[in-house]
């Protein structure tokens, strides 16, 4: 039985690995000349840049994936026991980061965010002693949300509204449906602490002012398993996944963009490439953007529940401007900066409204500055650093012309890092620059309007209200990745792959679920 997977992003590769472990013949089709999707790698002049995700959390999910074997897709248990990373180390080396992030405030102060509870308390005591008691209450309530929303429900596929209604009383009791920033404001009076404990939803494309407070669980996801880095970059993780897939007999074909998903009598039967080549399949898995999958890859007559009316109503996440740059090291970069840096602006709520709601390009901006050569010097030539700085911007529904804006915005972003003192003298030390805009997400990654994270994770696009991993319109069509359940972010995408593989196993009669667990999970 053949499965065709559209896209070699992390979700597509992870799902393909589990399908190959089931014994299916798996072919992954990738538009680009290499794997990774958003996690592609850009190499130039001796520098290696991860183009996308760099924050790796929940290593046991990767261990679970790399431990799969023939006849053992490891669809259960959901949360594997802590057994070290013996299987993972065959494919990629993960190292923990300390701190997870250094959060910089405009007044020159900073907050080092890590999993050490006493350290967190000391940071709060140093910057906002009035919020120490509030943090203790936040910690207790966020942990309860984490327990219910992640540990107990994380792998649940919400296939109907009834599934959501079953858990709604618990979510209401935990106050997990109010906006995250509003939730955080209950506990913290200091503006700095409100930002520290709400910004993380931006890492999955969510506006802290709009996403439900269930995302407060991210605090405990990171505190439980830490934040890690793949030596060699996230691209090394992707290469390890490709190697694992090939060991199981799966194949990846590059420069093979899909033009259409073929159907017959309401069932997916293969795909047609842009070249006109037809590839037959018994089932199809799309790792592509939700709007692109339903709006471009499927014929209109195949879309009953996901017609144009629904696609147009989908609220999409923001996009990104990312500047990749190599520069001569001065030797003191690690004094003010860490591996992951969050550079906050004077404004917070106003800036978020500009990007997500007004869809205008603000004069000010916040950065996520990634400096991986502090951890892995091999990513740059000797005596140099490789870095990227990421700036949230509106998606292309804004009408902004990035062909005109791009060069000046690149200079503005890099000059800010120099003149604000994060990388003093940077403009004179630059040896290489490259950048991507929302146009890259739209035209290279086929992401509708250049969104960077799929449907925005607002309450009405969460759980059963988020696109499902099994198509309701076309039998034999399955979906995986950040556009679908449970959402964006590396842990969620790995969970999505496992959920989708489980649905396929169930539909094919291949599942061997523990008694009583199937009904609760499928």
From TrEMBL:
Give start and end of each Amine oxidase domain: 11-504
User: Which PANTHER family is this protein grouped with?
Assistant: B-CAROTENE KETOLASE (PTHR43734:SF3), PHYTOENE DESATURASE (PTHR43734)
Q: Pathway it belongs to? A: Carotenoid biosynthesis
Name it.
Answer: Phytoene dehydrogenase
Keywords for this entry?
A: Carotenoid biosynthesis, Oxidoreductase
Q: Could you say which protein family the record assigns here?
A: Belongs to the carotenoid/retinoid oxidoreductase family.
* UniProt-recorded Gene Ontology molecular function terms: oxidoreductase activity
Concerning PROSITE patterns, the annotation shows: PROKAR_LIPOPROTEIN
Q: Which InterPro entries match?
A: Amino_oxidase, Carotenoid/retinoid_OxRdtase, FAD/NAD-bd_sf
Keyword presence, Oxidoreductase? yes
Superkingdom = Bacteria
Extract one GO BP annotation from the record: carotenoid biosynthetic process
Q: Which Gene3D superfamilies match?
A: FAD/NAD(P)-binding domain
A Pfam match: Amino_oxidase
């Amino acid at each position: 039985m053949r499965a065709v997977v559209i896209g070699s992003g992390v979700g597509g590769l992870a799902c393909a690995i589990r399908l190959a472990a089931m014994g299916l013949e798996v072919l992954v089709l990738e538009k680009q000349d290499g794997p990774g999707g958003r996690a592609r790698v850009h190499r130039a002049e001796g520098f290696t840049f991860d183009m996308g995700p760099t924050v790796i959390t929940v290593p046991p999910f990767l261990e679970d994936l790399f431990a799969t074997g023939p006849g053992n897709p490891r669809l259960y248990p959901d949360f594997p026991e802590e057994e070290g990373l013996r299987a993972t180390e065959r494919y990629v080396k993960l190292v923990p980061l300390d701190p997870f992030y250094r959060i910089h405030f405009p007044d020159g102060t900073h907050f080092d965010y890590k999993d050490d509870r006493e350290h967190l308390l000391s940071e709060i005591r140093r910057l906002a002693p009035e919020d120490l008691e509030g943090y203790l209450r936040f910690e207790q309530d966020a942990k309860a949300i984490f327990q219910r929303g992640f540990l107990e429900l994380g792998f649940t596929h919400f296939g109907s509204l009834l599934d959501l209604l079953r858990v709604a009383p618990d979510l209401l009791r935990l106050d997990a449906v109010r906006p995250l920033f509003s939730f955080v404001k209950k506990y913290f009076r200091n503006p700095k602490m409100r930002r520290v404990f709400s910004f993380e939803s931006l890492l999955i494309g969510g506006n802290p002012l709009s996403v439900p407070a269930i995302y407060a669980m991210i605090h405990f996801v990171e505190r439980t398993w830490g934040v890690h880095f793949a030596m060699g970059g996230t691209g090394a993780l992707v290469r390890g996944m490709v190697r694992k897939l090939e060991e199981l007999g799966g194949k990846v074909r590059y420069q093979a963009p899909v033009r259409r998903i073929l159907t017959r009598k309401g069932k997916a039967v293969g795909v047609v490439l842009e070249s006109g080549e037809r590839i037959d399949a018994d089932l199809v898995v799309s790792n592509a953007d939700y709007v692109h999958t339903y709006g471009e890859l499927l014929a209109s007559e195949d879309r009953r529940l996901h017609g144009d009316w629904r696609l147009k109503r989908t609220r999409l996440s923001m996009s990104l401007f990312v500047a990749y740059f190599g520069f001569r090291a001065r030797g003191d970069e690690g004094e003010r900066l860490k591996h992951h840096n969050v550079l906050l602006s004077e404004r917070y709520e106003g800036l978020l409204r500009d990007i997500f709601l007004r869809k205008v390009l603000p004069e000010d901006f916040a950065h996520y500055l990634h400096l991986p050569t502090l951890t892995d010097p091999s990513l740059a030539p000797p005596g140099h650093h490789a870095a990227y700085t990421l700036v949230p911007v509106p998606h292309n529904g804004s009408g902004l012309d990035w062909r005109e804006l791009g060069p000046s915005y690149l200079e503005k972003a890099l000059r800010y890092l120099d003149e604000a003192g994060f990388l003093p003298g940077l403009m004179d030390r630059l040896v290489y620059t490259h950048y991507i805009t929302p146009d890259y997400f739209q035209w290279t990654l086929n992401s509708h309007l250049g969104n960077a994270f799929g449907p925005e994770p607002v309450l009405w696009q969460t759980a059963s209200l988020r696109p499902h991993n099994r198509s309701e319109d076309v039998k034999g069509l399955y979906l995986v990745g950040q556009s679908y359940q449970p959402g964006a972010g590396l842990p969620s995408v790995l969970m999505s792959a496992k959920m989708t593989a489980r649905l396929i196993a169930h539909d094919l009669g291949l599942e061997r679920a523990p008694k009583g667990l199937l009904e609760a999970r499928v």
